[in-house]
Specification:
Layout: E1 6-9, H1 19-26, E2 28-31, H2 38-45, E3 51-55, H3 62-66, E4 73-77, H4 86-91, E5 95-97, H5 104-119, H6 122-130, E6 151-155, H7 159-170, E7 174-178, E8 189-190, H8 194-200, E9 203-206, H9 220-226, E10 231-234, H10 243-251, E11 257-260, H11 271-275, E12 279-281, H12 290-310
Parallel strand pairs: 1-2, 1-3, 3-4, 4-5, 6-7, 6-9, 7-8, 9-10, 10-11, 11-12
Helix pairs in contact: 5-7, 8-9
Length: about 325
């Protein structure tokens, strides 16, 4: 009889079709979220554990990493890793993997859905119809804005940002981007100043990484530069946008629309955004398709298996 490798799973991967079940079938899983005292559980059960499974929702901080003396690999479900202390992991020689690429297209598709929904007032229109107001009140909802042929600014031209940009070309849009540094392998225009990019753009899509380095990157100045007809879309991480400044800009008429899949204090959403017809709101579903969640699950499991088979994960975080 083959002995299963023991792993620690930080939290339930409820957003994936069968991840919890497949992990339990293949490994001896310590379900950390079910332990009454996490610190005690790590001290008592962690010796000999070399691999941890987590996600951006649960992370892996330095305390967890340092509580596991034999840890060698952290395999995360999802592309974001801002809640994993990668520096602490690498200092210990611990590999960290995520699941890039497999969710790129679905997140980019959703960004475009939000963009069009915001510009064409789709959310407001649906509420109008569902409330029985069509034909019962004078007129209809306010006019929206055209999307095709406009100016698209992208904050963060990584895998997802580039996929969003490619779709923009299909809509006959001019595309520019803001990054920490200019890329020499793309033809899109580069703006070193995010405020200047916002002032130029009709649509500003946030696709950058999360974490302390990008917290409130999109601030009051950027939002007001986008202007009273400008539309901001966020499919990255909520804290990248200063949410209080966003609400203030919408209420003051200094920003046209916010189309958001992520929020600064999830799952809490400001009441002002919930009530606003200038906002399109989704519950963080960028990767939430059957195909993509299955692919994320598969890649997470492949990283874990590769570590145990070869000592190396497949998609390491640098």
């Amino acid at each position: 009889m083959t002995t299963k490798h023991r792993i620690i799973q930080v939290g339930s991967l409820a957003g994936s079709p069968s991840a919890n079940q497949r992990l339990a079938e293949r490994y001896d899983v310590i379900e950390l979220w079910k332990q009454p005292d996490r610190k005690t559980a790590l001290a008592e059960l962690g010796k000999g554990v070399t691999a941890v499974v987590t996600s951006a929702n649960f992370g892996a901080n330095a305390e967890l990493i340092n509580a596991l003396p034999d840890l060698k690999a952290i395999c995360s479900w999802g592309v974001g890793y801002e809640t994993i202390d990668v520096q602490a992991a690498h200092a210990r020689g611990v590999q960290v993997s995520n699941t890039p690429d497999v969710l790129t297209d679905c997140v980019a598709d959703l960004a475009w859905g939000l963009m069009i929904a915001g510009a064409r007032r789709m959310g407001q229109g649906e509420r109008f119809v569902r409330a029985g107001q069509w034909g019962q009140v004078h007129g209809s909802i306010p006019l929206g804005q055209r999307v095709s042929g406009k100016k698209l600014g992208i904050v963060g031209l990584g895998r997802i940002g580039e996929a969003i940009a490619r779709r923009g070309i299909g809509f006959d849009m001019q595309v520019r981007y803001h990054n920490r540094r200019k890329r020499d392998d793309v033809d899109y225009g580069y703006e070193a100043s995010l405020t200047d990019l916002a002032a130029w753009a009709d649509f500003l899509v946030v696709a950058t990484v999360g974490g302390p380095a990008t917290r409130h990157l999109v601030n009051r100045e950027v939002l007001e530069a986008l202007g009273p007809r400008g539309i901001i879309v966020n499919i990255a991480r909520g804290p990248v946008i200063d949410e209080a400044a966003l609400v203030a800009a919408l209420e003051a008429g200094k920003l046209g629309c916010a189309a958001l899949d992520v929020f600064e204090h999830e799952p809490k959403v400001p009441e002002a955004l919930i009530k606003s017809d200038q906002a399109v709101l989704l519950p963080h579903i960028g990767s939430a398709t059957l195909e993509t969640r299955q692919a994320m699950e598969d890649l997470m499991l492949e990283n874990l298996a590769a570590y145990f088979d070869t000592g190396r994960v497949i998609t390491p975080v640098d």
